[in-house]
Automatic annotation (TrEMBL):
<feature type="transmembrane region" description="Helical">
    <location>
        <begin position="6"/>
        <end position="24"/>
    </location>
</feature>
<keyword id="KW-1133">Transmembrane helix</keyword>
<dbReference type="Pfam" id="PF03553">
    <property type="entry name" value="Na_H_antiporter"/>
</dbReference>
<dbReference type="GO" id="GO:0015297">
    <property type="term" value="F:antiporter activity"/>
</dbReference>
<keyword id="KW-0813">Transport</keyword>
<feature type="domain" description="Na+/H+ antiporter NhaC-like C-terminal">
    <location>
        <begin position="156"/>
        <end position="463"/>
    </location>
</feature>
<keyword id="KW-1003">Cell membrane</keyword>
<comment type="similarity">
    <text>Belongs to the NhaC Na(+)/H(+) (TC 2.A.35) antiporter family.</text>
</comment>
<protein>
    <submittedName>
        <fullName>Na+/H+ antiporter NhaC</fullName>
    </submittedName>
</protein>
<keyword id="KW-0812">Transmembrane</keyword>
<feature type="transmembrane region" description="Helical">
    <location>
        <begin position="105"/>
        <end position="125"/>
    </location>
</feature>
<feature type="transmembrane region" description="Helical">
    <location>
        <begin position="229"/>
        <end position="247"/>
    </location>
</feature>
<dbReference type="InterPro" id="IPR052180">
    <property type="entry name" value="NhaC_Na-H+_Antiporter"/>
</dbReference>
<feature type="transmembrane region" description="Helical">
    <location>
        <begin position="67"/>
        <end position="93"/>
    </location>
</feature>
<feature type="transmembrane region" description="Helical">
    <location>
        <begin position="439"/>
        <end position="460"/>
    </location>
</feature>
<dbReference type="InterPro" id="IPR018461">
    <property type="entry name" value="Na/H_Antiport_NhaC-like_C"/>
</dbReference>
<keyword id="KW-0472">Membrane</keyword>
Length: 477
């Protein structure tokens, strides 16, 4: 138990120290360094307990292999943000959004839009990294809160992710406890839809009482005219978005879909925004200018000096290089979590929770503590899904609880709480993609907070808790 507690205590002390010393800048390197030091602590404890250094290395290698797809998605999103800005895709989304969306109901509309998109394509990351970027950009121009908007984006994105049969986390949750995918989605709806209803109500109230500066409408008109004067705004600039949706619906790998849309946007910029491309890369001859513009945007991001500070701040971002701090954070967090699991340092922490859960409500609370705790300690939503599903499956069966209860619970407590942790892979991604610190948007991720609360409430009250008689696989109707 002492061996298991020491790395967690070191993590808590170092993370708290980084935040106390550096504030919101802690994620610009100090937290990443803290996580690497925690990995060293876990490795030393493992070696003290008889594990060879080669076993520690192999565990680290497996952790990196587990996040390879996330790494390429993150890099592709960085490239996409830059080329979509250069091609006028994001400016067009902002321009159209300003004309259609009102500050009063902007947050609720954001959550609904992201929910529909995520349900269609089955990816919260892709939704936040594309539509979410445009919606947070519109928030800046409209004078509404980017932090609340980011919370609405994440709330909608995770609703769609949970209820989409195309989502890999939804499929994994069902497979872990061996139930039908659509049965799992149907059970999830009992917590997801009420939680989203609560989120919409909160966002509507926030829209009424937190619309920002009342001069925002006039400022939005000025910025809208600036966008129209700088970029060629029109439906053709939305073709990269159309391509992304098409590839996602056809189930192309997420990283390839996003990278393909990013490259297509770069090529489209050469045709639709030649002046922007020339100003960005410099006039070095037609061919070299075009190649350099696309290459530089993908590598280090797009920048513009239009004379309008709001427009420049909105569009000067992106690039693969801009995601490197986030990748450092994810690598450190996931490696730490993998070392804890493979060196046997998680079981002593989880076993007492299982033994002390004498009622159904306490059992649900133990699953929540395990899943959310792993999101904090291990920094990866997949570990927060897989380990509780594996550890508690036999206990749910022993107590006559249908496996659909567990699949819903690990989804509500593992998947949706992952973006609430700054050093979790999901929290790091959302912060990097949306340009809003995790600690700032956290209070407004209403759906991600309400889902586990409702799951726990169901566990303690018995509402929608399905039971299975001995020798029967299906729940009692």
């Amino acid at each position: 138990m002492i061996d298991a507690v020491v790395p967690v205590v070191v993590l808590a002390v170092l993370i708290a120290g980084a935040i106390a010393l550096f504030g919101l800048d802690a994620l610009d390197g100090p937290v990443q360094a803290a996580l690497v030091l925690c990995c060293m602590v876990a490795a030393l404890i493992g070696m003290k307990n008889g594990h060879r250094w080669s076993a520690v290395q192999e565990a680290g290698q497996r952790s990196l292999a587990s996040i390879s797809s996330a790494v390429f998605i993150l890099l592709a999103v960085g490239a996409l943000i830059a080329t979509w800005s250069m091609a006028g895709t994001i400016p067009t989304l902002v321009s159209y959004g300003i004309q259609v969306l009102s500050p009063t109901w902007y947050y609720a509309a954001t959550a609904i839009i992201c929910g529909v998109v995520a349900m269609s394509i089955g990816s919260s990351w892709t939704t936040a990294g594309t539509i979410g970027v445009g919606l947070t950009g519109i928030a800046v121009v409209l004078g509404v809160s980017p932090a609340i908007t980011a919370g609405a984006v994440i709330s909608g994105a995770y609703l769609g992710d949970k209820l989409s049969p195309l989502s890999e986390t939804t499929v994994l949750s069902a497979q872990l406890v061996k139930i039908d995918l659509y049965e799992h989605i149907k059970r999830q709806a009992w917590t997801s839809l009420p939680a989203f209803g609560i989120a919409l109500a909160v966002f509507l109230v926030l829209g009424l009482v937190h619309v920002g500066d009342r001069s925002a409408t006039a400022d939005a008109d000025v910025d809208l005219r600036a966008l129209d004067q700088i970029f060629n705004i029109g439906p053709l600039t939305l073709l990269p978005l159309v391509l992304l949706v098409f590839l996602s619906v056809r189930r192309a790998p997420a990283s390839l879909s996003i990278a393909g849309s990013a490259l297509f946007a770069g090529l489209l910029a050469l045709v639709l925004q030649p002046d922007i491309v020339r100003d960005f890369a410099g006039d070095r001859g037609p061919v070299r200018t075009q190649v350099e513009a696309i290459w530089r945007a993908i590598a280090t991001g797009f920048s513009i000096d239009s004379g309008n500070a709001d427009v420049d701040q909105l569009l000067s971002r992106g690039g693969m290089a801009g995601m490197l701090l986030t990748l450092w954070l994810i690598i450190g967090a996931v490696t730490f979590g993998t070392l804890l699991e493979e060196l046997g340092l998680t079981a002593p922490l989880i076993d007492p929770l299982v033994r002390s859960a004498r009622t159904t409500g306490r059992l649900f609370l133990a699953v929540f503590a395990t899943a959310f705790g792993l999101n904090i300690v291990a920094g990866d939503q997949y570990l927060a899904l897989v380990l509780p599903g594996r550890v508690f499956r036999a206990e749910f069966a022993r107590r006559g609880l249908a496996p659909s209860n567990l699949s819903r619970l690990v989804s509500d407590c593992g998947t949706v709480t992952s973006p609430l942790v700054p050093w979790n892979s999901c929290g790091a991604f959302m912060s990097a993609a949306l340009g809003v610190s995790t600690l700032l948007y956290l209070p407004f991720c209403v759906f991600c907070i309400a889902s586990p609360v409702l799951s726990l409430l169901y566990g303690f009250t018995g509402f929608k808790v399905e039971r299975v008689p001995a020798g029967q696989d299906e729940p009692v109707s």
